[in-house]
Design goal:
single chain, about 120 residues, mainly alpha, 6 helices, about 0% strand
């Protein structure tokens, strides 16, 4: 299955970088590909390109944190998990979570108007 193959590639990139921000990007990317249709295929291909590694993706997140740090916040810079999710999705070309949830159709329900309210028969 493609999800397992993509996760294996992420795990390979995580070797030797445990306890780093890039490792955490890998963990969040695994969560994303488990829930976003088609994401595993995109990520699987992208991870073969050095410029698309989890380390390079983490640099995009760090850039946001650094910009915030420069806005007189002292020695603290923070990127929320939701913001990191957005950066990761943009980096790998994965649609937003809200977009995929809104456009996901249940397997046995092709049209939401096909729902029958049993109370209307009573």
């Amino acid at each position: 299955m493609m999800i397992e193959k993509a996760i294996e590639k992420i795990c390979q990139q995580q070797k030797g970088i445990e306890d780093t921000a890039a490792y955490c990007v890998g963990e969040q990317l695994k969560d994303i590909i488990r829930t976003a249709p088609g994401a595993a295929e995109l990520v699987f291909k992208d991870l073969d390109v050095k410029e698309m590694s989890i380390i390079e993706c983490e640099k995009k997140i760090k850039a946001l944190a650094d910009r915030r740090h420069n806005k007189n916040r002292g020695n603290f810079a923070f990127v929320s998990p939701k913001e990191a999710d957005g950066i990761i999705r943009e980096f790998y070309g994965i649609p937003d979570a809200e977009f995929t949830q809104e456009n996901t159709v249940e397997p046995n329900n092709k049209d939401s108007s096909a729902i029958i309210d049993l109370d209307s028969f009573l």
